[in-house]
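Hi support team,

I submitted a single chain yesterday and got back a structure, but I'm not sure I'm reading the token output correctly. Could someone confirm the output below corresponds to the sequence I sent? I've pasted both exactly as they appear in my results page.

Thanks,
R.
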Amino acid sequence: MRFLSFSFLLALVIPAGFVQAQTAIPAGTESYKIFQGDKVVGSSQYTVTPTTAGYTVTSQGNLRLSKFSYDFNSTQYLDHMLNLVSDRITGTVNGAAVTFAINSDTTGRQFNINVNAKGQDQQNTIDRHQHLALVPDLDAAGYMLLTRVGLENPQVSWALIPKETGLLVPTVYNHDASVRGLLNGRNIDVEHTTVEVSAQNAINVELFYTAAGQLLEADLPQQNFYVVRDGFKLVNRPKFAPPRSPEPNAPPPNGQQPQQ
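Hi R., thanks for writing in. Yes, this is the structure output for that exact sequence:
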């Protein structure tokens, strides 16, 4: 079985004057079940809390398979423009403790990453970009933030995968035809966007959400995992199409940085 990031955890250079994100994240808690095929194999939950600096997004989840298991807790801090400022993920992978911590440096141009796994500490530094979502495996918060990035229709976007010491990869958004779903028994229109993660050997994340950007379901069809909001059922699931990414996104111009 192939996982998007480290089988869990082993997983802004923003233009000056960039306007605030088009949509705020609503406060509250949302809960999801993780399916492998039609079998429930785990759960994921996130809570959004507005702060004076932006947002605190906490999430937790678990996965139980016959030969693999993990649990995680994540706390990330975003500014008002939904730019990642810092995050700390702790958890266990097959019973072994793992920690993945990321913090913006004093210049705001880079992230400092610290990982502890198998009793060893590792560090890394990567560029900090606008339109970036931190996406651990099967974390509903990560897919919610991918959705929010997509609502901005960015020309360049990124995912930070908590793999090894952090993998920064481009993302490509393809907006697809809307579908139908049931939310708490009520028929609703459902928006659909396909996100291709990484320029080479891309993984599709199929996002289903309301017109207001509330995540209803995130599918990883290549891995046969489905993260589904409690009370939601997709009525007419689109047929999976293999990744079709063009050339990888070009990096933003030098000298641009996030606004703190």
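A quick pointer for reading it: The CA atoms of residues 46 and 59 lie 4 Å apart. Let us know if anything else looks off.

Best,
Support desk
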